[in-house]
Amino acid sequence: MLGNLCKVAVIAASMTVASIGIARAADEELPADVIAAAKKEGKVAFYTSFFGAKAHLDIIKSFEAKYGIAVELLDVRASEMTERIRTEQSSKRYIADVVQNGAASLVRQQREGYLQPHGGIPNAKNLLAEHKETDFGVPTYILGYGILINKNAVKGDDVPKSWQDLKDPKWKGKIISDDPRALGGGNVMFTAFQDKLGDDYNKALAQQALVLSRDVGNDERRVARGEYPMRIPQLFSNWLALKKLPVMFIVPVEGLPYIRFDFGVLNGAPHPNAARVFINHYLSEQVQTAYAAAGLMPVVDGVLDKAGEAGAELKGIKLLGTTDVDHQNAMLDRAKQLYP
Amino acid sequence: MSEQTAGRLAVRRDEGTHMLDRLRALLRGRNLAVLALILLLAFLTVYPLSMLLYGSLHSTPPGTAGSFNLEGYRQIMTAHNAVVLLNTIGISFAKTIPSLVVAIFLAWIIARTDTPCRGVLEVMITLPFFVPPILTAMAWGMLGNLQVGLINQTWKAITGSETSPINVYSYGGVIWHMSQYTTTFLFLFLVDAFRAMDPALEEASRMCGASRWTTFRKITLFLLLPVLTSGVMLSFIRGIESFESPLFFGTPAGIKVISTEIYDLITQRAVPEYQSATALSFVILGLMLLLVVWQWTVLRGKSFQTVTGKGFNPGVVRLGAWRWATFAFCLLFFFVTTVLPVGQLAVGSFFQFFGFYGWDMLTLDHYRAVLGDSEFWRATRNTMMLGLVGATATMVLGSIVAYISIRTTWRGRRLIDAMAWLPWMMPGIVLAIGFLWGFAMLPAQIPIYGTVWALFLAYLALGTPVSVRVMSGAYAQLSFDLEECSRVHGATFFQTLTRILVALAWPAFAVGWVLAFFGIMRELSASIMLYTTGSEVLSVVLVKRWVNGLAEEVSVIGLMMMALVIVFRWVQLAVIKRRISTL
Q1: If residue B332 lies in a helix (H) or strand (E), which one and from where to where?
Q2: Beta carbons of B547 and A77 less than 8 Å apart
Q3: Domain span including residue B470
Q4: Closest listed residue to residue A84, CA positions, set B552, B130, B272
Q5: In a domain, B362, yes or no
Q6: What residue of B is the nearest CA neighbor of A175?
Q7: Which residue of A98, A188, B115, B315 has the fewest C-beta atoms within 10 A of its own C-beta?
Q8: pLDDT tens for each residue of A314-332
Q9: Hey, what domains does chain A have and what are their CATH numbers?
Q10: Could you tell me how many CB contacts below 8 A there are between chain A and chain B?
């Protein structure tokens, strides 16, 4: 057990969001002819599966103000966006320029042949070492998942410090969890546990009779109201909005399961130059700081210090693990076995 | 050329001319109209379903290389799915029957008794149908949860009991949540049918010695059979496909139904399993078609006409002191299904956090956030435009289909009726995929995909089954002698149509219009698949906020929708019905 923990700590430490004291290179624009071509194209169609996030709107406004290029935003849920893109690509109705999706899903879209090489993004030079771009995908931000506790129901030594603490019999039937049998935070957590803490850990957690739900917004409130003392996995960015309630976000020592959102440029994109300028803008200090302030972990160096309270809290948070494109269905199947 | 050859050619020419004449005759007038209608319905319903059928028989979705096989159907034939299907049927049955009993009682109270304030009560009773299920789920999650639910807390405070009697996260909770919609839906179907009933038939039954109960069973309910069977079937089928209630209240209790299984196959797999999902949907569609055939069998050869050339006043039963009991029953229904959940939403919308009440938490920020959001206003404009145009088009189409199906013996009427049914029998989430595939795969010269037309056509297809059922029920009650009398007196077909049929069926048309309008307003599955930048609709805006945990802003939007419902219902009942209805 101790060995496993040490291993976890080493892995987690290596994946820490490195942001302390590193000087970041200045933002760099694309060549003038690309920007001129982008302005001539006049707009960029942006599809994202980060559905309904208000942070998008301010960032889009900043892009439109800076470049005079209109952004057509279409945000839908991941499954709906994936099918729209598949349908548009296979029917050759090219509408979208840029797609933003979970890293694993984007790799799948690349394998299906829906993406084209982005052609180089100057600000990618500031990406953290563990989040480098590929020819087709450019990281944009990270969602981290921890534990949400009700401060009135979980006090003192009962407050979990490690994911292992959730195995304590006193929590049996008292933890509400996002459903690991479905795509989403629950399965990201399950996958990270399977990879980093082992199958035995997931088995032990299943023995705790987790109450499985898919009603994320309501489940957070149920913990705050005291219906359940604890919820897993809790999105850090969502917790920022709950701070006035009697709840607390816990970062276990092993780190946070996470999902990274990446950008890609779609085949047949009607506005390819505007797409590149748009992606480059997303890696700028201004945008990465805005995301950090909204509780999303940045993927570039040196912005957390400028991101206010949320940035300070994100500093030094370790990342535990994430989903893998080749094992997503296997993980869903394993979750169904453990939670029949 | 020999005489024989010339003769043969002449015969062929005659045959050819004859065939052309027949073709011309076929394409003339009525037949042409029927053909056009069949083509329109085929495009709206059969075409997206054919894309789904392709999906169920092909290893990959349309547009992607693969092969034809029956793997999808093989994969769904499992004991697990059989149990889930039985479970689903059981839940749908359990919510339909009590809802039907309550709906009949409420419709009878409103249409046929002297209960006080019936006009106001009618508006109040129908309100739950128009509240998006997400909102009531949110409210009932707070009212009926085991640990801190308001109802359980009140019960414990009054009785001193330690146990909580209500747990909304259970079979009972799923059925209860579904029932609120079903009861009001059935009520809307029934109330005008009760009004359009000639009490002479009931009086004759009483004169012949039948008791009040026997008369109600054998005359009143029998005459309502077309409307009743349509309403029950629509409601039962919707119960099979219902998604929100099992997802919110069933999943935490381990309750599985077909709709959540389909949802999982499409949205919760790394690569969506469209072949299995569409195959499962077609199995459901096949079972539902059996129900439609059953309805045809039940109604075949019977007459349900109650509106004849003779004038009549809808009979009002004098209840005496009991009218206050029926009044109280309606109020209780309104209180439980509307005041409790909507009150919870209204209160929650004024506090910083839904469910956390303190003076320091009072705020108008959520109203400011919603009212100051340009996307909300754009979505409101789009929804109103699509709702007004879409509901009107849906009702016009539904009226035509119902007329041909019920009032004519034209060839092809059964086909038209069956085609109009189809969208109702396919789970919304699957049908939405069918529309997406269908519109995107059209030739480039038909640019429907990515435009507001895609939403309009999807709404038209989705609303038609209800509009046809509403108008069919109304037409079935109208005696043929009314039309014949009009034609004998020299009225043209269209004069008869507008001045007899439309005038008499207007109340049903108005109810159907409201159902269609708010059906469009609530529709999510197709909307989220087909909307584009600039064509956002309210249901999408609502879900965006829900997914992001903004329950308070969801409440604000929901309350605004409620206000709109009240205005619409009021106008419909107070103005249109009083001035135009002759019933």
Answers
A1: helix B322-334
A2: yes
A3: 34-51+59-306+320-354+367-580
A4: B272
A5: no
A6: B252
A7: B315
A8: 988 999 999 988 888 899 8
A9: 23-142+258-316 (3.40.190.10), 147-255+321-338 (3.40.190.10)
A10: 142
